[in-house]
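Quick one: structure tokens for this chain, please?
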Amino acid sequence: MEARSCRNKFILYGLLFIGSWLLSCLLHFQFLHIPILSYTYKPSSSHHGAAAGPTTSLLLSPQPAVVEHRSCNERRVFMLHLPSRFNLLRGCLEGSPEFEDACIVMSNAGLGPELVPLSSNHTNGVIPNGGWFNTNHHALEVMFHTRMWRYECLTDNPAAATAVYVPYYPGLELNHYTCDTSAMVRDGPSGEFLRWLSSQPRWATLGGRDHFMVASKTTWMFRRSGGDDSQGCGNGFLNRPECLNMTVLTIESNIWERRDMAVPYPTYFHPSSSSEVAAWQARARGAHRPWLFAFAGGRRPNGTLVLRDRVIDQCESSSRCGMLDCSHGLEGSITCQSPEKLMYLFVSSQFCLQPYGDSFMRRSSIDAVVAGCIPVFFHEASTFEKQYRWHEPDRGRDGVHRSYSVFIDNDHVLEGKVDIEEVLSRFTDEEVAAMREEVIKMIPRFVYTDPRVRFEGDMRDGFDIAIDEVMARMMRIENGEDLGW
């Protein structure tokens, strides 16, 4: 009788163990919201260049690379599992019409619809076959999250981690609200999330200073100050005490704020192998560039962006300037949202003008790099040296920091002291070729590879560089250094 009782206890314990294991698996997949989502949509004509086919995967399901490497001693990252209520793309799984546009933008792990080669009088087949997508810069949060699943030093043990990655999408969350929405409403969801985050056990270890995340908007969109008013856009996410401790990577930083760190805007090129990168670099290197300089953008109503107006005036008055004019309402907007037309203009130009607009940094400056077009900056806060110092080119073996851009003081342009065409015409063919070569060498550092596949070849992309720098930053924090808090 006693033996039977013991046997029954063992059976009961076994069933309880198996049941708890199954329950933990179910909860695991429930909370790992993004990697298991997919959706079906019918491509519309408004998504130019979308690949044919009825189904587009939001994300594949990469298995977390929880593998110990010798190089992982100080580089282990624990990825938080968020409750489903913080899954901002759950509408894609549910098929909610409210999230239809967001689902298409976030398809293919955030890369967006795949671009197919097109040839016309305006593009000349500039987009090659494979590796190019109609990527929205707000999707960087999703792309980064997917790449983290393939990070070689990911660990499922929070106590062994040097850093904690927070897969929350503050930029995507803010996209749900217009600028005339109450500030209290705009602050609500992210505030709820931060309260949950700061209540987690690992937060108490360093008060969140070992946590990091990506926010795919400019820093200014998360630094709204003031009371419950409806003036202006954005929210106060980065002003919250919790965020003052975390490392939050935005696509544009406040260069006068020590805590701010920026990573490059995503572009349309997401290679899956080093051979794809080399082939595109060769194409950019050998491209015929009839335009001395180029600009893609539009004026603002009532002349609110005076520098941009001056740049457009000088471009329009020159026979050596190519331009995509986004000023003419819907037509202009559609023109400037065409990856083919933008890349064709930049690949056909020697210099690409990057005047600041609503903020200092422009995605156009990264598109210019990918096209092998030398960027021309007009304010220090627009330069890679200030914004993307992690991704700026390494010094050569001789220690020389070679020129890859041109700087023209915005005040001189506004005061009519300089003519842009005259300044750029002073560079010799040899100097232009040398700068362009430096730009082309930068391409791997300023692109994000396809996060759905394992990259073939040896190359550090924008993600690799960002993670290396974040981990170095976390180790300094762990060693007690004061990084600005």
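Residues 131 and 276 are 8 Å apart (CA to CA).
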